[in-house]
Amino acid sequence: MHACVLGAGVIGVTSAWQLAQQGWQVTLVDSATEPASGASHANGGQLSYSYVAPLAEPDVLPHLPTWLLNPSSPLRFRLRADPRQWRWCLQFLQACTHRAAAATTAQLLSLSYLSRQVLHDIQSTHAFDFGHAKNGKLIVYRTPSLLEKARDQVKLQADLGSDQRILNTQELIQLEPALAPAQAHLAGAVYTPSEESGDCARLTSALFKELAAMSNVNIRMGTTIQALQRTGNRIQALRTSQGDLIEADHFVMAAGMGSQPLMAQLGVQVPLYPLKGYSLSVPCAQAHVPAISVTDYERKTVYAKLGDTLRIAAMVGIGASNQGIETDRINLVRRQAQSLLPDVDLSAAQAWAGYRPATPHGRPWIGQSRAADNLWLNIGHGALGFTLACGSSHLLSSLIRQETPAIDPIPFQPRS
Ligand SMILES: Cc1cc2nc3c(=O)[nH]c(=O)nc-3n(C[C@H](O)[C@H](O)[C@H](O)COP(=O)(O)OP(=O)(O)OC[C@H]3O[C@@H](n4cnc5c(N)ncnc54)[C@H](O)[C@@H]3O)c2cc1C
């Protein structure tokens, strides 16, 4: 069998990897010249296996007015004359119920645990160096009442198998001394010892390099997919910017935000919307850098030591006009980082902005598209694409090969 995978971000590369390992012929296509050039390039580096609650949750609603009016809030919303934006926002608000958020959390946990198992299985045979660490995660809270509320989520996730515990400020500083300069502002934390971190782009590139050396894999970088040619219920070929057609038995759509216009050409609206985020990559051959991954809950900022780089990621922009770096937003990330870690030197930090390809409810779409029998989707991983990539691609590969999947695929089934 021959599969053509559209997109060489972390989702496309792990999809290609799963199929190629099964002996399938694989063609991997991307418009960029290097893998992980899109959202997978400089993300937060969190392998957030136990902390997968969707963005759409009831607590968002009371915070919305403050977030929308405050220029220092993690969320920036720009209203566009774009029905796609309005539809996405409406569906997002509809998903902000306790029932929907609890169901999505349980479904994402099943996928994230599969992801962890698949990544560890890959690592048992391939010694990829991607700054991977199993140092756990601290979600730090500034407001005592919010820390109290976090107990409910910890309890919900404990029932679903997560090992998490609440730390007071003293216990927090004992565990992560790098946070000592900010301790007067911290109420405590949720500590999850099993969480991991790593550099998404480095893992993607390492897998890509292995794929490029396999005789059953054909790599087509620098090749923009212009259209999918459909006859009846089947995709026959991709039309590319290089003027040729790529034929295959199956096609896997893993083009991140680029999946949306390609599917629209087939008359299918996928509910993806870009949520813009920022990161700083700081050379960290310096003291005062946390060894444990940290999430500053109220500021929605994450910190991860990825080998010799401290990655700081933050901000959600809805309705951004382009992927450029807005000075006020990146300066806000800097100020927030400096207030939590005042002794870390940010002068050599590299700034980056990317789009999270998000569905309104927070669940990716993994499985057969209704647009064609041989078109498979692996899209919409939002803020969790690195965490969910290995599990999503394992699930997709089982479905294409008509094998029994390791987890229930129904919650992730594409609706179009
Ligand atoms: C600021 C930020 C922080 C994040 N932090 C984390 C984190 O800590 N942990 C986590 O799990 N996730 C995180 N994420 C989310 C994660 O990065 C994404 O979910 C993930 O990278 C999506 O991967 P993808 O392969 O679907 O998309 P992409 O990486 O965007 O890949 C899509 C690829 O498709 C290609 N493509 C698109 N259209 C075409 C076309 N027409 N022809 C040819 N090629 C095409 C693009 O060139 C691109 O290479 C973060 C995201 C951002 C923006």
Task: Please outline what is shown here.
The protein has ten helices and 20 strands. It is α/β, with parallel strands linked by helices and 416 residues long. Flavin-adenine dinucleotide (FAD) binds next to helix 1, strand 14, strand 18 and helix 10.
What is the CATH C-level name of the domain at 49-81 and 131-196 and 273-358?
Alpha Beta
What is the number of E strands? 20
Q: Round the Cα radius of gyration to an integer and report it.
A: 21 Å
CATH superfamily of the domain at 49-81 and 131-196 and 273-358: D-Amino Acid Oxidase, subunit A, domain 2
Structural class determined from secondary elements: alpha/beta
Fraction of residues in β-strands:
25-35%
C-alpha termini separation: 24 Å
Helix content, binned percent: 25-40%
- In CATH, the topology of the domain at 49-81 and 131-196 and 273-358 is named D-Amino Acid Oxidase, Chain A, domain 2
Level-2 CATH architecture of the domain at 49-81 and 131-196 and 273-358: 2-Layer Sandwich
Order of helices and strands: EHEEHEHHEHEHEEHEEEEEHEEEEHEEEH
Present as ligands are: flavin-adenine dinucleotide
Mean pLDDT, nearest integer?
95
Parts with pLDDT < 50 across at least 5 consecutive residues = none
SS summary, helix count: 10
Shape: globular
Largest sheet features: 9 strands, mixed
Task: Report on this structure.
The structure is a single chain. The chain has a domain at 49-81 and 131-196 and 273-358: D-Amino Acid Oxidase, Chain A, domain 2. It is 32% helix and 25% strand. It is globular and about 65 Å long. The protein is of the alpha/beta class and 416 residues long. The protein binds flavin-adenine dinucleotide. Flavin-adenine dinucleotide binds at residues 7-12, 29-32, 37-40, 43-46, 48, 200, 224-225, 254-256, 258, 262, 277-279, 302, 313, 354, 356-357, 381-387.
